[in-house]
Design brief:
The structure is a single chain. 37% of the residues are buried. Helix content is 82%, strand content 0%. It has one domain. The protein starts with a helix and ends with a helix. By secondary structure, it is an all-alpha fold. The radius of gyration is 17 Å and the shape is globular.
Length: 196
Amino acid sequence: MIEIYGFSQAFVALLIIVDPLGNLPVFISLTEGLTNNERLNAYKMATLTGLALLILFTFAGTAILHLFGITLQDFMIAGGILLLVIAIKMLVGEKWALKISSEEIGAVPLACPLLAGPGAITTTMVLIGTVGLLNTLLGVLACFGITWITLKKSAYIYEFLGKSGTLIIAKIMAILIAAIAIQFIRLGIEGIWWTL
């Protein structure tokens, strides 16, 4: 059943984790030197590949948990720790040093790990248990719709925000990711506590 609150929660959480706006400096630097058509093709490939990965985990995530005997609470705690590490790396300014051909750039690293990385996959799988499959799926679709628009207009957005503005947004997103990570860890611990 579709719930506005559940959909909104999934959409906002995924948009924060995928963070197309905060990742704009990375996207622009990785596609520097490409023609406009090549850049758009790379962004299209990144969006479609990232969307496909998250949809796969939306439908198969629960089966994967059952296959390995992992509870949702276990995954929440592990995912929360992982997200916290990602947030800390973003806050301290980890450098991306990636050199790949233009043919591969759409799939790696734009789609994975930048758009559909461990954080987004973890968030998707946890959201299934908290807001439901349908709300999570709709959240994924809406998130990647916004991501495609952001990437398509990346040159204009980056020019409008400037380097400092984009950097500030990335840092704010990192703090929100850290907060979501703590929430996941807390919910996981609470879930384990109540099953004892």
